[in-house]
Amino acid sequence: MLPRFPKAQKITDDAWQKAMFAAMHEILPLEIHPPVQPIIEGKSSDFQREDRQIRPLQLKKQQATTHFDTSSGKGATLELLYEKARELGESIAKQQWGMIQAAVDEAVAETGNTIKIKKGNITQEDIYRILETTEANFDEAGQPTQRLVCGPELAQEFALREEQWRHDAAFHSKVAEITQRKRADFNEREARRRLVD
């Protein structure tokens, strides 16, 4: 039997975990990951929507595997260890992202809030529609807390348009007007919620 080195194993395990979770959080950052409550027993669960409808929670097992080629008889290098950890982290995050995206797509289709944007041609009207159709929340200082989550190509295009429209006073005025209206809606919602509580 080969000797065991518990301290070295712990250092290796910790490095593996850090590399795997770092890769996961590059694809699905923690700040956009929905809150998670562990399900201890059972194979099904449900959730209640804002309209009080109870819906089943579609649970899918997520797993990722990797393989170390040990045919040469050599151990794994640290580089290979990090590469395999990243591979697993990316695989799990892509599965999680796909599950979140499917749930969002379903909700958007059901509410009729689908916004089609022509690739390479984001207009100011597209931005207004995005702001109008989303429910906005605000922090204690009155600043919006929602985030726009999109793929890298669309994010790049948004950044380009933001640069182009940086000094467009009419655009910023319209965005401020929509934001002010959304802030008033939010304050009214919060006031009603506090009355019920």
Any overview of this molecule?
The chain has 197 residues and is mostly helical. It is built from 5 helices and 2 strands, in the order H-E-E-H-H-H-H. It has helices spanning 6-27, 78-111, 124-133, 152-164, 169-196, and strands at residues 45-48, 54-57. Strands 1-2 form a two-stranded antiparallel ribbon. Helix 1 (6-27) runs parallel beside helix 2 (78-111) and helix 3 packs parallel to helix 5 (169-196). The protein is extended, with a radius of gyration of 23 Å. The model has no long low-confidence stretch (mean pLDDT 84).
Task: Please write out the topology.
Blueprint: H1 6-27, E1 45-48, E2 54-57, H2 78-111, H3 124-133, H4 152-164, H5 169-196
Helix pairs in contact: 1-2, 3-5
What features would you highlight for this structure?
mainly alpha, two-stranded antiparallel sheet, 5 helices, 197 residues, 2 strands
